[in-house]
Each structure stands twice: as structure tokens, then as C-alpha cells.
Design goal:
heterodimer, A: alpha/beta, Mannitol-specific EII, Chain A, 6-stranded mixed beta sheet, globular, B: alpha+beta, Alpha-Beta Plaits, about 30% helix, elongated
Chain lengths: ~160, ~120
């Protein structure tokens, strides 16, 4: 199985980005993935992510969200992350601000692997220690190291 | 001695399946309502809401029937009869049947059958 670690680029990890809204945050993250994958029209990805958000909010609770989408606009799965220490209004059902966001975008043909990765991310984020480590991270390298350490426990 | 487990996805066949169990020589079984993992994830956990289409081959609710079977020939007969009823267990979405070894059991119905 693909690892989360291998799909996150350090350039796609945002620590305390200057964003004021969920939409602004998702736009920034989609732009990051678009640059990483060489997608000219990042709006295609944004539209796919927002379409999924409209279906139901991708907040897990505990201040975490996993926006995701399958779209024909990409050929490989990519993950982007953001840590917003003060939190951001994500219209989460528990009404709590969200401070950890992992966005995953994959090709339409990759539903199976997408589902597996989504489940792994959700499982990790249910662990309070893991969440606290991510919330305290100061650099993208730190963020990646925490993900890698957690994934190594599953090997 | 085996524990026969059968998850019947097509509940409309329950009566016929139970008749087949009895016909094959199973006089005691326990059954309960069960639910597919895919349905629960896609419909009850918002994170997986986008996978309703992906999960559509899975039946939302099913029946699980379990029975301790002493005579393993009974299992072959049950399998054959159930295949005829549901149209073949190899077809996706019909059901799953499997056995696990049982090394001890108490309280089983005693059979006095002749085949």
C-alpha cells in the first residue's frame, strides 16, 4: 500500500498559513497540489473538493478535517497538509475550529487506494497524541517526520 | 466439527436458505441481522460519503446464520443447495459462506438422522 508519507511533498505542508476562511484555506491547498502535479487549472481541483464538501463536511471532529476528491484532472494521488494553530472555522458538525487539515486528491480510477489512505489518515487522526504532535509542529520536515514515525508503526 | 457461517446478502432468500439448511441436515442454527461494512461507512460516517457509489455492490443489510456442524458432509450439501437458491455464491453480492474448526462445543442438538 502507498504511504501517506510518500504522497506528501514538503512544499505542500503549510504551517500557520495566513488564511481567514475555509474557502481560502482550501484554495491555497489546491494550488499547492496543482503546482506539485503540474496541473494548469487548479480550479478543477477546487471544484472537485468543494463538490465533495457540499455532500457532507469532511471534518472528523477533534479539530481535524480531511478534504478529498477523486477527479479526472489528476493522474496520481497527492496529499497536502496544513496546521493552523489558532484553528479555522470549517463549518464542522461539532462546531469546533479545525487546526489540522490533510487534503487528498486522487484520480478517478484510484478509488480503492484513496479509500485505504483516507481510512489510514482518519485512524491516525483519532489518536490524540498524534494530533497533539501535529499541532505542535513548527516545520514541514517535523510534520513529515511525525507522519513517517506513525506509518512505520503499521509496517 | 465445524462452525458454518453464512452471510446471506439477499434476504429475500432467507426462508429457502433455512429450508435448505434443514434439508441438508442442519436442525439448529442461530441467525441475526447484520449490516455490511460498506453501507455503514458510506451512509453513517460523513468522511466516507463520497464512496456510496463505490460501495453500491454491497447490500446494506444482510442475515448472518451460524451453526455448529458435526458431520462435514452436511456442509457440502448446504453449499450445493444454497448455490442453487442464490444463483451461485461466486456471484458478487449474493453472500459469503465459510467454516472454521470447532474443537469443543456443548448444548448442540443431537441428530438421529439417516441419509
Amino acid at each position: 500500500m502507498l504511504s501517506i508519507y510518500s504522497l506528501v511533498s514538503p512544499k505542500c505542508i503549510y504551517i500557520n498559513p495566513d488564511v481567514k476562511s475555509k474557502e481560502e484555506l482550501l484554495h491555497m491547498m489546491v494550488n499547492g497540489i496543482s503546482s506539485e502535479l503540474g496541473i494548469a487549472d487548479s480550479e478543477l481541483l477546487y471544484d472537485a473538493v468543494m463538490k465533495r464538501e457540499k455532500m457532507s463536511v469532511t471534518s472528523l471532529g477533534f479539530g481535524c478535517a480531511v478534504p478529498h476528491a477523486l477527479t479526472a484532472a489528476v493522474e496520481k494521488t497527492s496529499i497536502c497538509a496544513a496546521v493552523i494553530k489558532k484553528g479555522i472555522d470549517y463549518t464542522a458538525p461539532d462546531e469546533q475550529p479545525v487546526s489540522i487539515v490533510l487534503m487528498m486528491i486522487g484520480p478517478e480510477s484510484g478509488a480503492r487506494i484513496h479509500l485505504k489512505l483516507l481510512s489510514r489518515i482518519a485512524r491516525f487522526l483519532h489518536n490524540e497524541d498524534f494530533r497533539n504532535q501535529l499541532k505542535q509542529t513548527e516545520t514541514s520536515d517535523d510534520f513529515l517526520r511525525i507522519i513517517k514515525n506513525e506509518e512505520e508503526k503499521c509496517l | 466439527m465445524k462452525l458454518l457461517i453464512f452471510v446471506l446478502n439477499k434476504e429475500e432468500y432467507l426462508e429457502e436458505v433455512l429450508e435448505a439448511f434443514v434439508e441438508a441436515g442442519i436442525e439448529g442454527a442461530t441467525m441475526f441481522d447484520s449490516e455490511g461494512m460498506g453501507r455503514f461507512l458510506a451512509y453513517e460516517i460523513p468522511l466516507y460519503a463520497a464512496f456510496k457509489e463505490f460501495m453500491k455492490g454491497n447490500k446494506p443489510y444482510n442475515k448472518t446464520i451460524i451453526s455448529v456442524v458435526k458431520d462435514e458432509k452436511v456442509i457440502e450439501r448446504v453449499k450445493s443447495l444454497v448455490d442453487q437458491i442464490v444463483g451461485g455464491l461466486e456471484k458478487p453480492g449474493t453472500g459469503i459462506m465459510f467454516t472454521v474448526p470447532v474443537d469443543w462445543a456443548a448444548g448442540l442438538v443431537e441428530f438421529n438422522e439417516e441419509y
